[in-house]
Design a protein that fits this description.
- The chain is α/β, with parallel strands linked by helices.
- Helices cover about 35% and strands about 30% of the residues.
- The protein has 2 domains: about 1-215, Rossmann fold; about 220-280, Alpha-Beta Plaits, CATH 3.30.70.
- It has 9 helices and 14 strands.
- The protein is globular and about 75 Å long.
């Protein structure tokens, strides 16, 4: 388990992370969310020891993280950190050797990854010759070539088209299923919602939501309600318990405070006309993020 206890990071008078306490379960995927400047990358860098924390404690498997554990940890930074004039092979051999791997093993793993990502022809190409999306694939390979037990991914799907996003997502899921603990941040709520069991939403360095995604949705209370019918539903706009209303050509979508409001609306529709759809859903992670972070998100 990765554990952060009362972690604070200050840069002069600015507090980037404020009294953050988290427990990130082993062999799971944990999602970090937050607006620009919320403290996600700073938190990652403190976990890795790239930044010294001002206060608090960070432990993994009960011990502080040190250089001696670097061969067990992988990191994909948001900013690309590859050497542009090196070939892909030279790049990965160098980084793999830093992780204690033998050249033969590195080349074998690299061949497997390049074939999996459908770019075997890039072995001897310089990084600067690749598109941004393919550079991202190589950077991902550099983060996982040594089969880390803890993997930190900062915006891993940035710059990828939908096909390559799915390819990389499956690779991440396979690593998790093989026992790797994964922590990642993304501005794409759907990716986090689809892949993570636990999440944390940061706002100005402080967690405003933290825990099991399933429990967070239950505790949030508000529901999404979708209605289709052959009559005007404008009267629902000001209905008690309706927090937002969006008209559609043949109905509307609503956010309601709780299931009782949905039941009352269902009763109020009786006798007004044919209802072809009445569906209540759990709130999406995007709904929760907007409600909790709101106007402060940039």
């Amino acid at each position: 388990m990765l554990k952060l206890s009362n972690v604070t990071k200050r840069f002069g008078t600015h507090t980037a992370v404020n009294d953050l306490s988290l427990e990130i379960p082993e062999s799971e995927m944990f999602g970090f969310l937050g607006g620009n400047g919320a403290g996600k990358t700073t938190t990652f860098r403190m976990i890795l020891g790239l930044l010294d924390k001002t206060e608090g404690e960070i432990t993994w498997q009960g011990n502080p993280i040190s250089y001696q554990q670097s061969h067990l940890i992988g990191y994909l930074p948001e900013e690309r950190g590859l050497y542009p004039k090196l070939t892909v092979k030279e790049q990965i051999i160098y980084l793999g050797r830093l992780r204690g791997m033998k050249k033969h093993d590195i080349l074998q793993k690299l061949d497997e990854w390049l074939n999996r990502f459908k770019v075997p022809e890039y072995l001897d190409k310089k990084v600067q010759e690749l598109s941004k999306g393919n550079q991202q694939k190589i950077q991902f390979i550099s983060a996982v070539i040594h089969e880390p037990k803890l993997l930190i991914l900062d915006e891993p799907f940035s710059g990828l088209d939908p096909v390559n996003v799915e390819m990389l997502k499956q690779a991440v899921v396979d690593l998790k299923n093989a026992g790797t603990s994964i922590v990642f941040s993304s501005h794409q709520m759907g990716h986090v919602e689809e892949m993570c069991q636990h999440v944390c939403i940061l706002q100005k360095g402080t967690p405003v939501v933290h825990g099991s995604l399933r429990d967070i949705k239950k505790e949030f209370g508000k529901k999404n309600l979708s209605i289709r019918g052959e009559f005007s539903m404008e009267f629902l706009k000001d209905y008690p318990g309706v927090t937002s209303y969006k008209a559609l050509p043949e109905g509307c979508t609503l956010h309601v405070d709780n299931e009782q409001v949905a039941q009352d609306i269902f009763a109020s529709l009786q006798g007004k006309g044919f209802v072809s759809k009445f569906e209540i859903e759990e709130p999406s992670l995007n709904d929760i993020f907007i409600a909790k972070v709101g106007a402060s998100y940039e």
